[in-house]
Amino acid sequence: MSLFANVLRVHQWVYEKSGGLVGHRILLGNPTLLLRTVGRKTGQPRTNALTYARDGKDYLVTASNGGSPRPPGWLANLKSAPDSEIQVGRRRIAVTARVTYPDDPEYARRWALVDKVNRGRYTQYQKMTTRPIPVVVLTPR
Q1: DSSP conformation letters of 13-38
Q2: Which reactions appear under catalytic activity for this entry (predicted)?
């Protein structure tokens, strides 16, 4: 496991253990939420710390998996059960997820929002993989 992956794990652990008091903006200053899904195979709760951008009332995250050729497991969990929960700071919000790809008319605009928050990192990740990296729209219910 890479050093950065370990840093991400510690960040998520601090975010969870503090109840969101610490962690919302700790990692490189990027806003971070906790995405809570249910494992599609196990039925077990899963939590992932993800940086996000806002688009009106929606929260935007990318399924970049660090530019890996494989998408992150949480993406398959959301496709299987789009209703999930996010935690932003100390607030828990019920959301419905919608996965968007480059053929979506709003994709480029949304991509620009999340890429700006992450200082161009997602553009670099997209160059590392041939799979299109989706932007996931999390809409509060």
Answers
A1: HHHHHTTTSS-SS-STT--EEEEEEE
A2: oxidized coenzyme F420-(gamma-L-Glu)(n) + a quinol + H(+) = reduced coenzyme F420-(gamma-L-Glu)(n) + a quinone
